[in-house]
Amino acid sequence: MLNPHVFRAYDVRGLVGPDINPDVFRQVGRAYATLVRRNGGRRIAVGQDNRLSSNGLKAGFVDGVRAAGVGVVDIGLVTTPILYFATAHWKLDGGANITGSHNPIEYNGVKMVHPGAVPLSEEEIQALRTMAEHGDYESGAGELTQRSPGDDYFETLAGMVRLARRLRVVVDAGNGVAGLYAPALLRRIGCDVVELYCESDGSFPNHLPDPEDEQNVEDLKAKVVEVGADLGVAYDGDADRVGVIDERGHRHEADLILILLARDLLSRHPGAKIVFDVKSSQALVDDIRNHGGVPVMWKTGHSHLKRKMREDHILLGGEVSGHMFFAENYYGVDDGILASCKIIELAAGSGGPISRLFATVPHLRATPELKAPCPDGEKFRVVAEATRELKRRYETIDIDGARVIFPGRGWGLVRASNTNPYLTLRFEARTDAQIEEMKREIYDVLRRYPFVTLPD
């Protein structure tokens, strides 16, 4: 039996063992390949991260794909953005990367795309579940070949940036697959690279590769200061997200990094749209407008933002989790390593320390993303009911949960995580006292649900 909860909003993901195993992935692979064939496709790329369970899961997935009559180009150990690149650059009929991304080591999953690295929709992922449950498969014998996209990827990205001066950069890969690619690429574009946890080790012995959690970049912050680096960059497990540390050892939130990238894009494309998720700072909204751009707030989730970029012809996007999306001379996908190259280029061209660039960004008081554990089967109902109640009292943006505007104070957000059994909350205001007031109001609404564990 397939656990329906592993079929999520933009990937298939769950606990390795009972929920995610080679047999389950054989079924998912065959269902995905059936979708590819029914769309007229015949050949896809398949890659994997370095998690201990990824080899077996990829073998099961590939078996399923080939059993549906679709050929596989095995691209080996790669970041998810390299899987996207290979799919689009080689004009394949789809692609899939076996990865647990930033999740704890007991999790794994698969991210799947259409031609051009267009993400599958939520409805298509649910359709895969239906196909698997009913055995509604195509049949055949797809061929298996091997090819590395590394050289093509390096040449493409190296051609997109040019450093005005040589910078010293500390790279923390968290022992994920970014360590196989990022240091070499950054050296190629002209950086002096200091490696930290760049050895590939899918048990992640030093820290979980998730730069959104500040605890995971403490060693990076210390190393940047110790070696006198110009900045530090960190990636998540499959390198589709980036974190940035300035030369003083300070971490900067991804929505503020997007402000710098947006200013750069708007200097070349006046009036352009920039898309970002509902968790993003009001400072981002205001800064895009102040620099002549059009801010577009959208649903959290890399697939949602990529589809929005394609629909509205948007060249740049980002979200608080660290995904940065590039469609200017690129494929409209998220890539943490490309994002770090762009940030390094901005730092090199600024003529001063990167902290001076961040000092030009308006800083409001904001909480990190707060997580309130809530069962998968209840979280969307809770958010829908809370949204209805909050909308009766306040102006509320409800494109993804409830972003509640508190007049004269700021905003508070409650939404259901698409990837894990919890609600996510974030608050932003001018003062900590205002944040606490907004927290109280939203927490009071959530307290009526005894199965929701509110954060401290």
Rounded to the nearest angstrom, the distance between the terminal CA atoms is 37 Å
As a percent range, the share of strand residues is: 15-25%
Strand order of the largest sheet: 1-5-4-2-3-6
Poorly predicted runs are: none
What is the radius of gyration computed over CA atoms, rounded to a whole number of angstroms?
21 Å
> What is the top-level CATH class of the largest domain?
Alpha Beta
CATH architecture descriptor text of the largest domain = 3-Layer(aba) Sandwich
Overall pLDDT confidence:
97
Count of all domains? 4
CATH fold naming of the largest domain: Alpha-D-Glucose-1,6-Bisphosphate, Chain A, domain 3
Number of strands: 22
CATH superfamily of the largest domain: Alpha-D-Glucose-1,6-Bisphosphate, subunit A, domain 3
User: Which secondary-structure class do the elements indicate?
Assistant: alpha/beta
Biggest pleated sheet: 6 strands, mixed
Q: Treating each run of at least 4 consecutive H or I residues as one helix, how many helices?
A: 14
Task: Specify the helix fraction band.
Answer: 25-40%
Please tell me what the overall shape is: globular
What this model shows, in words?
With 456 residues, the protein is of the alpha/beta class. It folds into four domains: 146 residues, 3-Layer(aba) Sandwich (Alpha-D-Glucose-1,6-Bisphosphate, Chain A, domain 3), CATH 3.40.120.10; 86 residues, Alpha-D-Glucose-1,6-Bisphosphate, Chain A, domain 3 (3-Layer(aba) Sandwich), CATH 3.40.120; 106 residues, Alpha-D-Glucose-1,6-Bisphosphate, subunit A, domain 3 (Alpha-D-Glucose-1,6-Bisphosphate, Chain A, domain 3, 3-Layer(aba) Sandwich), CATH 3.40.120; 82 residues, TATA-Binding Protein, CATH 3.30.310.50. 37% of the residues lie in helices and 22% in strands. A six-stranded mixed beta sheet has the order 1-5-4-2-3-6, with helices on both faces. Strands 17, 18, 19, 20, 21 and 22 form a six-stranded antiparallel beta sheet that branches. Strands 8-7-9-10-11 form a five-stranded mixed beta sheet, with helices on both faces. A hairpin with a 5-residue loop joins β21 and β22. α1 runs parallel beside α2, α1 crosses α4 and α8 runs parallel beside α9. It is globular. The two termini are 37 Å apart.
